[in-house]
Amino acid sequence: MNNKVLVTGGTGYIGSHSVVELINAGYEPIIVDNLCNSKIQVLDRIEKITGKRPTFYKIDCTNEEEFEKVFVNEKFDSVIHFAGLKAVGESVIKPLEYYQNNVGSALVLLKLMKKYNVKNIIFSSSATVYGDPISVPVYENAEIKHATNPYGETKIIIERIIEDFVKANPSFKGILLRYANPIGAHKSGLIGEEPIGIPNNLMPYITQVAIGKLDHLNVFGNDYNTIDGTGVRDYIHVVDLAKGHVSALKKFKEDITCVAYNLGTGRGTSVLELVHAFEKANNIKIPYVITKRRFGDIAINYLSAEKALKELNWKANLTIEDCCRDSWNFQVNNKDGIK
Ligand code: NAD
Ligand code: UD1
Question: CB–CB of 338/41 below 8 Å?
Answer without folding.
Answer: yes
